[in-house]
From TrEMBL:
Domain YgjP-like metallopeptidase: 99-173
Pfam family, one: YgjP-like
Full protein name: YgjP-like metallopeptidase domain-containing protein
PANTHER family: UNCHARACTERIZED PROTEIN YGJP, UTP PYROPHOSPHATASE
Source taxonomy: Bacteria, Bacillati, Actinomycetota, Actinomycetes, Kitasatosporales
Region annotation Disordered: where it falls in the sequence: 1-34
Amino acid sequence: MPADPQRSVTSEPPRGAGTSAVEVRRSPRRSRTVSAYREGDRTIVLIPARMSEAEERRWVGVMLDKLAAQESRGVLGDRELTERALHLSEQYFDGRARPRSVRWVTNQNTRWGSCTPSEGSIRLSHRLQGMPEYVVDYVLLHELAHLLVPGHGPAFWRLLEAYPRTERARGYLEGVVAAARLPHPPAAGEAAREE
């Protein structure tokens, strides 16, 4: 039986897919929309048939990030956040960064996280809640690195090179900041004002 040209399956999951395989389904009836959902141990991404392979790769990444964000909305409590930080320290820093406390705070609106090395405390902004797990992990690792190296010099950034999603997470956070600066369209039913 010949392979279905409307379906493609990646044998290795792309970054962001966790351990599940990704199946892309192309539809001639789908003109613009892209959607994705989990089905057992695989992720199904539905795209228009006319999309190029480059567009497919880009949209698969976007949809995997969206699914990860939706799934991470079951927000970790402070205890789970501390456990996550300890796990990340073991995985990327040989367990050398040992925070005494890790918690969410609501008073950090211009930073994603902060750290007080003398106390061993890490605080993450509540604005990270609901973002993809790899973004929260990056911010945790960033603050864990400050327990080992003060400032943002070369030694600090060398530590973060161990995390393979550093650049992607930084790009995500930069996008969030940039989007917040964009003018917002008027809400439904609200007239646009010209100034």
